[in-house]
């Protein structure tokens, strides 16, 4: 039986932090960068009076539209899909207004992965797969299989998981010779 | 660790067949009943010229709104939730226009189950749980844990799974003394 890889969306294949910073800088005329969020989340590096606005962005139905796809993600996942069953697994239940945009984003960028292999969930401990590639340590912590921590500014100090820095590295790590 | 029960939605906790028949009879002034679908699906018991219409209903954003909840489902699941972690697992990816209605239906009828325990998927072999309660044999067939087939007209001739006829019976079967 083919092994299964579960792949997160935000900050694993798509640049949701980039969108967050783009909308924040636009609203408040600031110059926040990704580097400013090192070791934490954007909510914690903005002034307290901006926090409510920043927390509201992902609840906007367009927040997850047209996100940039990370370098080499499409090609690497396409290659991996020849050897593994690929599932996209996203904690969309945190942002129920995101369902449609997330679905359409996956259809657009990964047409070679069937939509029956999309999973919109919350608690990822419900996922039965051999590998989980995710930027969020809490999801890897409750996962039964092998987790790969996709490098992101917010997780840069996490040490409990095997870290991968790029989709080329994911491909090298999981490709079967 | 608490065991986990994954519970399907359509025809397991909510009467989607009832809605299907209601819309069909309304559009074509017919008298179709649930009994007429015994051993098969509604698509196969209507005249061929009606099939496209009948197949289109679940793609309407309102199809899954206000579905009737099955007898004793709320009380039984509430009782089970004291002893198990409950996840709702629905093959919503077959009908992507259904996401919002399904989410709101669960919030309304099962406010005691956290939304992070909702799973919208397609292929349910991705589910990691101890039990799956589902009316669709194909989902039980690929499930790793113990499956319970929730009785429905379409599955009445299936023999490969332990059948449960009501939510009272589910409760008796899974309740820990």
Description:
Two copies of one chain form a homodimer. The first copy, chain A, has 177 residues and is an alpha/beta fold. Chain A contains six helices and six strands. Chain A has two domains: 4-15 and 67-174, 3-Layer(aba) Sandwich (Rossmann fold), CATH 3.40.50.1000; 16-59, no CATH class. Chain A has helices at 16-28, 48-56, 73-80, 99-109, 137-141, 167-174, and strands at residues 4-7, 85-90, 118-120, 131-134, 146-150, 162-164. In chain A, helix 3 packs parallel to helix 6 (167-174). The mean pLDDT of chain A is 97. The A-B interface holds A 4, 6, 87, 89, 91-94, 96, 99-100, 103, 114-123, 125-129, 144 and B 4, 6, 87, 89, 91-94, 96, 99-100, 103, 114-123, 125-129, 144. Chains A, B: The active site is at residues 8, 10. Chains A, B: This is Putative 5'(3')-deoxyribonucleotidase. Chains A, B: Belongs to the 5'(3')-deoxyribonucleotidase family. Chains A, B: It comes from Marinomonas spartinae.
The share of residues in helices of chain A is: 25-40%
User: Largest protein interface?
Assistant: A-B, 28 and 28 residues
The SSE order of chain A reads: EHHHEHEEHEEH
Under CATH, the homologous superfamily of the largest domain in chain A reads HAD superfamily/HAD-like
Strand count, sense and barrel status of the largest sheet of chain A are: 6 strands, parallel
Category by helix and strand content of chain A: alpha/beta
CATH architecture of the largest domain in chain A: 3-Layer(aba) Sandwich
Count the domains of chain A: 2
DSSP strand content of chain A: 5-15%
Number of helices, counting only DSSP H or I runs of 4 residues or more of chain A:
6
CATH fold-level topology of the largest domain in chain A:
Rossmann fold
Count of DSSP strands of chain A: 6
Average pLDDT of chain A: 97
* Rg value of chain A: 16 Å
Protein name (chains A, B): Putative 5'(3')-deoxyribonucleotidase
GO molecular function (chains A, B): 5'-nucleotidase activity
InterPro entries (chains A, B): 5'(3')-deoxyribonucleotidase (IPR010708), HAD-like_sf (IPR036412), HAD_sf (IPR023214)
Active site (chains A, B): 8 (nucleophile), 10 (proton donor)
